[in-house]
Amino acid sequence: MSAIVEQEDMRMQASACPACIAGPSAERLAAAAAPRDARLMLSLPTAHCAVCITDVERELARQPGVRSARVNLTLKRVSVDADPGVEAADLVERLAQIGYEAHELDPDVLSATEADKRGRDILMRIGVSGFAMMNIMLLSVAVWSGAQDATRDLFHWISAAIALPTVAFAGKPFFVSAWGSLRGGRLGMDVPISLAIILASLISVYETAHSGRHAYFDAAVMLTFFLLIGRYLDYRTRAVARSAAEELAALEVPRAQLLSDGVEVTVPIGTLVPGDLIRIRPGARVPADGEVVAGNSETDRSLLTGESLPVWAGPGAVLSTGEVNLTGPLTLRVAAAGRASSLHRMADLVAAAESAKNRYTSLAERAAAAYAPLVHVAAFAAFLGWLKVSGGDVRLALNIAASVLIITCPCALGLAVPAVVTSASGKLFRKGMLIKDGTALERLAEVDTVLFDKTGTLTMGAPEPQNLTDLAQDDLAVAAALAEASAHPLALALAEATRAMGVQAATVGGLREVPGFGIEGEWQGQRVRLGRADWVGAHPGEVTATHLQIGDRAPLTIGFADRLRPGAEAAVAGFLAAGKEVHLVSGDTSGAVLALATRLGITHWHAGALPAQKAALVAKLAAGGAHVLMVGDGLNDTAALAGAHVSISPASALDAARTASDIVLLGADLAPVADAVRLAVQARRRIKQNFAISLIYNAVAVPIALLGFATPLAAALAMSLSSVTVSLNSLRLK
Known about the structure:
The chain is of the alpha+beta class and 734 residues long. Among the domains are: 37-116, Alpha-Beta Plaits, CATH 3.30.70.100; 462-562, 3-Layer(aba) Sandwich (Calcium-transporting ATPase, cytoplasmic domain N). The longest helix is centred in the last third of the chain and has 35 residues, at 672-706.
């Protein structure tokens, strides 16, 4: 992108030591100056419907230089094709004006997180195998009706022409998985499945070639069809749209304004080195870790800490990647950027936690590990036994071995968990909860400890003025006038509250915002100020507040409190009544955390917790044998969410937090969280019942197959019956 020259605030550059400025290399400047079309990617956490798509795309298309904008509602992102020079910050600001929260993402980081096609691929194979199965069954009816000799052989060959390509195409997921297991020296669940399908097909070809009375092409295709349904259910319950670690890394600002000899140059983040000086304009996100060397402002750390209260930033203050500069320009000396930044370290922490959680083995997988070898042993024993009994009749021995392999095929076992999870997911969805991970219900049933984040989780994350009725009308009018002229979060909340009360703002002249402190002006010949306690001469308190000073009068304090999320009291009470240990962990001040913990009856609380400290608390509890449920919504909660035994985020949470969670709370009410644990216990009971059904079925069916009373087709029908029984038992959850 072309170099951008700015002449404002030269005093900031003068304050920096020239020796401390690491000049950009020729390669870096050349890369920065190379014009190219901008492809911008923005996250849209609040987009949820078709109207949102229309609003966002239409508004962005109106902006100068924007050629096109396409919203992906599933991923909650918008891709923008624009001319060089179009800044993401301008588009974010424009979307905020029409009511849509947006964050810039790095499209290069997200290149591997496009929509997964695996689900559609499995559905296509289900459709092909289902259509083929119906046609082969029609041909089989003719054979069963008495077709003989050449007519019967013709129908069998037609069935083969349909079945063999179908099995090769539709059964590919099982064959590929089985081959991978064998190459790794393992007997996975797909090995007996693949062997059963292949044996049924080969025996059918052999029988057809020798004018046999029976062929089992319908059994091979039917087996494939039912197994694909189970595989799709399993996929749907396990599919997660994207990696939380990638989402975290993508939140890093991809470009920075590098200061070099008094000139601002837009450079990629990856080219920054420690010691570089960068300019951070008001409203921009901090692109690297570092120390402020010039300027005064306040920063919004809600993306990192979950707390909405801004923090003062001035010379000597240390800023982290991802914070938002609110009121004044800052000059930052880079300490760490790119993969060395705190945001990337948090992403690495999440990635490690995700890997650890992915090592959790579901009940079905553990059962299959023990069951799969028994299937092969039983089939091989049947082959050897009947080969000896029949006097060397390989054809008969193979038929019976195939019947044993098909009848013991772990289809019902494969459906035992996905069918329950799908049924339970539907019930929880109607209660306002979306399950994203197939093992989440199993883990949720084991929970004995619950960790709640505060702001945005137990509370709504929006400050509300508490004592406005105690102020005189003139004081309210002045406060309203000052608040309406500021972009500070507390000022915005105050302005909204005074408007709702019908307060007419006073006429205040000479309005001026002092970065990092507040806003001041003149009213009726008196200086008036709204802002920090030390700026107006007030005594700082433990609660969140802003302070109003009119002339020489004593400052007035306007306190703020966060509104409790609906159902928060019911959820905490439900967990406590069930004997769970409940913790409140927050990055907020100890006074605010203690007040909320006391109100909700929570005895274990932790204040001022950084993201790594939250993750460490989860790890500490887990090391002590606890099964932790983490409920949080912020970027600062993401590592803890990923590291917990099971995790839940509200729909209002940041994209990365929702991605790291196993369950998403779709509504604002928190009460269903406690109900989810109770339903998870019921679901685990159904899963165990399904395993019992599968074992009883095998105890009855396997001896029948071993004694030679079941053909491969009868075995396939019996296997299908066991799968249907498991599915019906799972539906009892509804």
